[in-house]
Amino acid sequence: MGTLYELLGVSPTAPLSEIRTAYREKARRLHPDVSGGSSAEMAAVNEAWAILSDKARRASYDARARAGQVGEDRPSAEDQHITPRGNSVATRFGQLLMVTVLSLVFLLAVLLVYAFTRSGIVMAR
After folding, report:
1. Residues whose CB is less than 8 angstroms from the CB of residue 83 and which lie 6 or more positions away in sequence, other chains included
2. What are the CA-CA distances from residue 94 to residues 87, 97, 103 (Å)?
3. What are the residue ranges in the chain where pLDDT is below 70?
């Protein structure tokens, strides 16, 4: 399939109601739990619906299609409104380090408050 419109079997000028109907029919026919279709095909249909059902995302997709930047590739992260997130070991280590430091700061604060209350030092209000 070339474009998202071709994937759903509608024209690029189709109104949202026609796209919705085409999506539902295609989803019924391809859903892995209902008809035993492939999950990859269903994921592509879901992506097409997610982009074409949103006005801004559809306009962005149409602009890219007019510029010839749309083809067999998957929609870009910008079209999907996905922010890149690191899942590397360094990112995970950084997150673990931050949680550890914050935990130690919290523990130190609790110990200091406990020490002041036990020593009888009253803080002025």
Report:
1. 77
2. 11, 5, 14
3. 1, 70-87, 121-125
Residues 65 and 17 placed together within one structural domain of the fold: yes
Checking phi first, is residue 26 left (phi over 0); if not, alpha (psi -120 to 50) or beta? alpha
Q: How many CB atoms lie within 10 A of CB 37?
A: 17
pTM of the model: 0.53
**Parent domain of 102:** 85-125
Are 37 and 29 contacting, i.e. CB atoms less than 8 angstroms apart?
yes
Residue with tokens 């592509």: 44
Residue 87 CB-density burial (10 A; 0-12 exposed, 13-18 middle, 19+ buried): exposed
Residue with tokens 């801004």: 56
